[in-house]
Amino acid sequence: MSAPGRILATSALAGLALQREPPALIVDASPATLDVPPLDRAARDAWTLQEPKDTVLSELDRLFRWIEEHHVRVTEVGSLHWPVYEPRRGVSSDGGS
Length: 97
Fold this sequence. Notes:
By secondary structure, the chain is an alpha+beta fold. Helices cover 36% and strands 15% of the residues. It contains 3 helices and 3 strands, in the order H-E-H-H-E-E.
Protein backbone atom coordinates (compact mmCIF):
# COMPACT_ATOMS: atom_id res chain seq x y z
CA MET A 1 0.00 0.00 0.00
CA SER A 2 1.31 3.46 -0.87
CA ALA A 3 1.98 6.08 1.82
CA PRO A 4 -1.21 8.05 0.99
CA GLY A 5 -3.18 4.80 1.13
CA ARG A 6 -1.72 3.96 4.53
CA ILE A 7 -2.51 7.46 5.79
CA LEU A 8 -6.14 7.23 4.66
CA ALA A 9 -6.52 3.74 6.14
CA THR A 10 -5.01 4.92 9.42
CA SER A 11 -7.25 8.01 9.37
CA ALA A 12 -10.35 5.86 8.83
CA LEU A 13 -9.39 3.53 11.70
CA ALA A 14 -8.72 6.50 13.99
CA GLY A 15 -12.13 7.92 13.08
CA LEU A 16 -13.82 4.66 13.98
CA ALA A 17 -11.94 4.51 17.27
CA LEU A 18 -12.99 8.07 18.14
CA GLN A 19 -16.63 7.23 17.44
CA ARG A 20 -16.47 3.98 19.41
CA GLU A 21 -14.58 5.39 22.41
CA PRO A 22 -14.66 9.20 22.36
CA PRO A 23 -12.18 10.85 24.73
CA ALA A 24 -13.54 12.30 27.96
CA LEU A 25 -11.10 15.21 27.70
CA ILE A 26 -8.89 16.60 24.97
CA VAL A 27 -5.97 18.83 25.92
CA ASP A 28 -4.59 20.96 23.08
CA ALA A 29 -0.82 21.04 23.67
CA SER A 30 -0.14 23.21 20.61
CA PRO A 31 0.81 26.25 22.76
CA ALA A 32 3.94 24.30 23.77
CA THR A 33 5.32 23.92 20.25
CA LEU A 34 5.46 25.82 16.97
CA ASP A 35 4.97 22.79 14.73
CA VAL A 36 1.59 21.53 15.93
CA PRO A 37 -1.56 23.27 14.69
CA PRO A 38 -4.09 24.42 17.29
CA LEU A 39 -7.42 22.60 17.54
CA ASP A 40 -9.39 25.85 17.59
CA ARG A 41 -10.33 26.88 14.04
CA ALA A 42 -9.68 30.62 14.49
CA ALA A 43 -6.32 29.99 16.14
CA ARG A 44 -5.43 27.46 13.43
CA ASP A 45 -6.35 29.95 10.68
CA ALA A 46 -3.93 32.47 12.22
CA TRP A 47 -1.23 29.81 12.82
CA THR A 48 1.81 29.56 10.54
CA LEU A 49 3.95 26.45 10.16
CA GLN A 50 7.49 27.58 10.93
CA GLU A 51 9.40 24.91 9.00
CA PRO A 52 8.86 25.27 5.24
CA LYS A 53 9.96 21.65 4.69
CA ASP A 54 7.10 20.38 6.91
CA THR A 55 3.44 20.14 6.05
CA VAL A 56 0.18 19.52 7.87
CA LEU A 57 -1.67 16.63 6.28
CA SER A 58 -5.11 17.46 4.95
CA GLU A 59 -6.36 14.29 6.69
CA LEU A 60 -6.15 16.25 9.95
CA ASP A 61 -9.13 18.30 8.77
CA ARG A 62 -11.33 15.28 9.50
CA LEU A 63 -10.00 15.16 13.07
CA PHE A 64 -10.46 18.90 13.54
CA ARG A 65 -14.07 18.65 12.28
CA TRP A 66 -14.80 15.73 14.60
CA ILE A 67 -13.47 17.63 17.60
CA GLU A 68 -15.53 20.72 16.66
CA GLU A 69 -18.68 18.61 16.30
CA HIS A 70 -18.25 16.53 19.45
CA HIS A 71 -16.29 18.62 21.96
CA VAL A 72 -16.40 22.14 23.36
CA ARG A 73 -13.63 24.19 24.93
CA VAL A 74 -14.26 24.50 28.66
CA THR A 75 -11.08 25.81 30.30
CA GLU A 76 -7.31 26.20 30.04
CA VAL A 77 -4.57 24.57 32.11
CA GLY A 78 -0.95 25.29 32.86
CA SER A 79 1.24 28.31 32.41
CA LEU A 80 0.92 28.04 28.61
CA HIS A 81 -2.89 28.04 28.82
CA TRP A 82 -3.45 24.73 27.06
CA PRO A 83 -7.10 24.60 25.94
CA VAL A 84 -9.16 21.74 27.39
CA TYR A 85 -12.17 20.31 25.58
CA GLU A 86 -15.01 18.18 26.97
CA PRO A 87 -17.71 16.30 25.06
CA ARG A 88 -20.69 18.40 24.01
CA ARG A 89 -23.87 17.51 25.85
CA GLY A 90 -26.38 15.66 23.73
CA VAL A 91 -23.87 14.45 21.11
CA SER A 92 -23.72 10.70 20.82
CA SER A 93 -20.57 8.80 19.93
CA ASP A 94 -22.08 7.72 16.61
CA GLY A 95 -22.12 11.32 15.41
CA GLY A 96 -25.79 12.03 16.00
CA SER A 97 -27.28 14.54 18.40
